[in-house]
Design brief:
- It is a single chain.
- The protein is an all-alpha fold.
- It has one domain: Four Helix Bundle (Hemerythrin (Met), subunit A).
- It is built from four helices and no strands.
- α1 packs antiparallel against α2, α1 packs antiparallel against α4 and α2 runs antiparallel to α3.
Length: 140
Amino acid sequence: MLMLAKIIHYLCFSVGIGGGVAAMLAGIRAKAAPGEAVPVLRGIQKTLGRISFAAIVLLWLTGIYMVYAIKGGWGDLNAFFWLKIAAVLVLTGASLTAQYFTLTAPKRNPATMGPLMAKIGMTASGAAVLALIFAVIAFS
């Protein structure tokens, strides 16, 4: 079961990072795209965001399972693990915010949402990279 949790954890991290990069590229393309292509590209971004959010949920579930399966709980974890958790909390917060803004997009001004969503995406991507770096250090 532990091996399956690790596989799911690593795959979800890959899906999250890949989805974030793909969504960013779709957003960049949408800025210069002809009018009829913009809704398609925004739809792709929305789908990638939902998939990435689902991956974050699975990362939390498998991560918590692994803490108990490998370490027996939260007591014996080093400072880099807690830095990783801090980065994951930032990533989760950015993802939740992006999902909220996506769900409430019809009520918002598209001109102001683009730059805001780009900042949220950069925050999430940076936090994900930091989480990976701290995880490698924590478990080396």
